[in-house]
Amino acid sequence: MRWLILAGLWLCYASFGVTVASLAPLVPIVQADLNMSHSAMGSVMGAWQLVYIVAAIPCGMLLDRLGGRLALTLGVGLVVLSGIGRAFADDYWTLLLAVMLFGVGGPIISSGAPKIVTGIFQGSQRGLAMGIYMTGPTTGGILALTLTHSVLLPLFDQSWRAVMLLWSAFALAGAVLWFVIASLAGPKVRGFQQQAVPALSSTPAGGSVVADILRGPGIKLLLLMAVGAFLFNHGLNNWLPELLRTGGLSVVEAGYWAAFPLLVGVFGSLTIPRLATPERRFRIIFILCIAAVVVSLALQFQHPLVLGASLFLQGLVRSSLMTVLILTLVELPAIQERHTGTASGLFFSAAEVGGVLGPLGLGLMFDLTGGFDAGLYALAAVAGAMALGTLRLSRIAGGNPSVADIDRKRQVAS
After folding, report:
1. CA contacts within 13 A on the Cβ side of 219
2. DSSP string computed for 214-276
3. Mean pLDDT in residue range 199-218
């Protein structure tokens, strides 16, 4: 039954991923239809992350109170409304507001998934389960990038609005299936928090919980690295099809090339987080950061071999770096299991600062310089700083206990 719950989480995250990726392949069409500049489109693509920053911690606390079944159904429902709002947008402001709505539903999903996995899986299976559900947004992104220009736009007479409505229907189906799975399988799975948790007088206030988490050793540095990881991921995720198109590829070719790192990401999600056990976790993070430096520099070249290698590395980084960082956070002994929703919300609240700066920064640099090279150099510098931060974090957390010790301490605390 645990794996059935995991399948439901996968559907929620697939709905998340397809909605996030749905706008990127439509950038030229939407810009022309709504008369928007690259800077304006960059602000739209970064808008939901801006809301996410504010909403993530309250959503994490709400998750701790409501339980997984209701909270994730609500989260995916808001994603559905965001997609519908995009389909009916008629100018910059209505599109911006529709995308911002995603920033309220998204953090419930991204905070809920690690909380539920932490509750129902133990030991090495936890990393594997996190890697599996992270293939959900990857698969959603592959569908959006590969099908938009080759299948969906011709099918819907070049209507980008109809494409948005289709993805909204996909997300709605995910919300319904999650609710059914959680209702039927949840009561049979130990550690699955299905029902709302009543407030207890002994439960610390939300602000106190956040303050306690921030006082943990290495937490602030880990949050800064999360900012860098999201800056890299969201910057490239949103602009990669356009970056490839301006490099000489057709819109269809750019869509297929942009989907390649997503395919690689499926492999990365299923292998790298499982290998990231505490004793080698920081070495893996360091290698992924160096790979991000290489990707940022190599994407300035359009030779097929260089492009293929750089997109392969990007797929490994985008699928694994964030997962390993959040796994590191939730397994720190300072994080009690009942507060993993709040801790995950704090992680994503900080990380989405980078989620805003990535697409917005690349769009602004394109308008200022007429190309993406300056933005790619900036991403390389950020990834290099993260590699240095990993060395420091590994020294701070060098005495961390094993996963088994952490699980035993949590069981005693609960």
Report:
1. 20
2. HTSTTHHHHHHHHHHHHHHHHHHHHHHHHHHHHTT--HHHHHHHHHHHHHHHHHHHHHHHHH-
3. 63
pLDDT at 338: 66
What distance in Å separates the CA atoms of residue 17 and residue 44, rounded to the nearest whole number?
A: 17
Candidates 322, 308, 296, 319; CA nearest to 260 is 308
Cβ 131 vs Cβ 271: under 8 Å: yes
Amino acid at 27: V
**How far, in Å, are 43, 67, 231 from residue 32 at the CA level?**
16, 43, 26
Using CA atoms, how far apart are residues 20 and 99, in angstroms rounded to an integer? 9
What would the pLDDT profile of 354-405 be if each residue is shown by its tens digit?
A: 878 888 888 889 888 888 899 999 999 999 999 999 998 888 776 444 444 4
Measured between alpha carbons, how far is residue 282 from residues 123, 287, 411 in Å?
18, 9, 26
Residue 133: name the closest of 352, 327, 404, 410 by CA.
327
Q: Assign 217 to helix, strand or coil.
A: coil
- pLDDT tens-digit series, residues 310-336: 999 999 998 889 888 988 887 766 666
In the predicted model, is pLDDT for residue 414 greater than 60? no
What's the CA angle centered on 403, arms 399 and 407, to 5 degrees?
Answer: 115
End-to-end CA distance of the chain, in Å? 23
What average pLDDT does range 219-240 have in this prediction? 89
Tokens of residue 13, six digits:
């995250």
- Lookup result for tokens 């988490």: 213
Biggest distance spanned by C-alpha atoms of the chain: 63
Q: What is the mean pLDDT of residues 133-157?
A: 88
CATH homologous superfamily of domain 2-194+204-413?
MFS general substrate transporter like domains (1.20.1250.20)
Dihedral class, residue 45 (left if φ above 0, else alpha if ψ from -120 to 50, else beta): alpha
